[in-house]
Amino acid sequence: MAAQAHNDWNERIALAQQMLPLLGQLHRNNNVVTSVFGRLLVNVSDVDIIKSHRYARHITEHELPLEKTLPIVQELVAMNLGTASIDLGHLVTLHDEQGGDLGEFLKRELADVIGTSTEHKQTDVVLYGFGRIGRLLARILIDHQSVDTGCRLRAIVVRKNGENDLTKRASLLRRDSVHGPFHGSISIDHDNDILWANGTPIQIIYSNDPATVDYTRYGINDAVVVDNTGRWRDREGLEQHLKSTGVSKVLLTAPGKGDVKNIVYGINHDVIEADDTILSAASCTTNAITPVLKAVNDRYGVEFGHVETVHSFTNDQNLIDNFHKGSRRGRAATLNMVLTETGAARAVAKALPELAGKLTGNAIRVPTPDVSMAVLNLTLKQDVDRDEVNNYLRSVSLLSGLRQQIGYIESPEIVSTDFVGSTHAGIVDGLATIAQDNHLVLYVWYDNEFGYSNQVIRIVEEIAGVRPAVLPRRKELSEL
User: Fold this and answer.
1) The domains spanning 122-260 and 285-448 adopt the same CATH topology
2) Active-site pick, 106, 170, 220, 284
3) What strands lie across the sheet with 122-128, from one edge to the other?
4) Less CB within 10 Å around the terminal CB: N or C of the chain?
5) Residue 27 — pLDDT band, cuts 50, 70, 90?
6) Residue 365 phi/psi, 5° resolution?
């Protein structure tokens, strides 16, 4: 038995090692990002590939065989593909259902991006601020960069905090206590204030005034500026960025005020118009709950509900008791559960108007550094069955256009740290679902840092016109 298990592991390692250079080639040469039911295969090891295939059992109840995905990857390399996000797990599932020649099957499913590899578009991106979200956005942008297409991180704007500022910025990008080390190499050009990350030069610009930066001085034009400082949330404040030279769009990584459109990617990104210059990516909690609420409302109808978020502490709180302008947030974040308010329930209506006035919400900050949970306590327009709801949400996570937003898992041992690094906006914990008559309670995990940052990048790619086609085609909720 032990010898058989050893041989099986070695066989899987061998298959994964064959796959590694092919995945890299697809990413570098074709700007094709691959995944297994949402688990990205970017900058991964052979063991990571095996783990992603094993993870598939949470989705399909069976481990995904590498013997089925390797031939698909080999075919993809020879297909002259253009920019795309391709789910290998979904392709295997569809091919098992349809059968037939693998090459012909892939030609049908990927027809939209075959022969489009010469269609290149590149957009400059600037990060204004370099805190928790800013550094994760930088990591994702660097991971996503291919040779000559897509969004390219060109600059980071910060206020200078001492002579060793650049060294400290590089160190914070290189190491993270929650998300681990940076995947790659980082070096510093002190003479020119440049961070080199995986061969990409990132200009560090020191400024206290967003309106006075001349980005064209650094060869940056028509840039998308992602303001992750949270300092300005209304149109008047954010318009300061547009007064600088070389900027065309601004995206705020916090709920926007006034008439600023709050975008939850996957829900209302279609309201973005070409002449929109200022947008908001809403909040991490709004991104986590809105897709799930959309799926539930479309199927069963929501009469009203209450959202309780159990949220990790943030830098907005105090490490130990001290003065804070906010209620209760001055008490020690790592020692207390802190009851506070959240605007996420109300903010849902900005992306999903049909739920306006139907939700209330509160938040409890807890002593964990990352990964939060939203408890959706809903009264529906019809009676529901627990298994039917779970099967529906599992299908949404697997097959629908919200696959990148909604994850689904059933595991009796899963805890918050298991979701660190999730790219989903939120993940439904199926074992925790409660249904009685027309009352439904759902528990939704979310990495309030990394999952949200991936939602932000999706919006950046959308407004830049470089959002990759997501294949195979996802189903509408009404088709499930």
Assistant:
1) no
2) 284
3) 186-189, 194-197, 200-206, 150-158, 122-128, 223-227, 247-252, 278-280, 261-262
4) N
5) confident
6) -80, 130
Cβ 295 vs Cβ 376: under 8 Å: no
Joined together, the tokens standing for residue 215 give 């980005």
Closest of 301, 297, 387, 285 to residue 345, by C-alpha: 285
- Domain 122-260 CATH assignment equals 3.40.50.720: yes
For the full predicted model, state whether its pTM sits above 0.85.
Answer: yes
With beta carbons less than 8 A apart as the criterion, state whether 477 and 298 touch. Answer: yes
CB 278 within 8 A of CB 252: yes
Just give the CATH number of 285-448: 3.30.360.10
What value does the mean pLDDT of the chain take? 93
Quick check: is 284 catalytic? yes
Residue 122 has pLDDT above 90, yes or no: no
In the block, tokens 């590694």 appear at: 20
The tens digit of pLDDT for each residue in 357-396 reads 999 999 999 999 999 999 999 999 999 999 999 999 999 9
Q: Structure tokens of 267?
A: 């829900």
| pLDDT tens column, 79-98 | 999 889 999 998 999 999 99
**438-461 per-position pLDDT tens digit:** 999 999 999 999 999 999 999 999
Q: How far apart are CA 474 and CA 401, in angstroms?
A: 5
The residue extents of the domains of the chain are 1-117, 122-260, 285-448
Q: How far apart are CA 105 and CA 212, in angstroms?
A: 54
Residue with tokens 């559960």: 337
Per-residue pLDDT tens digits for 329-340 = 999 999 999 999
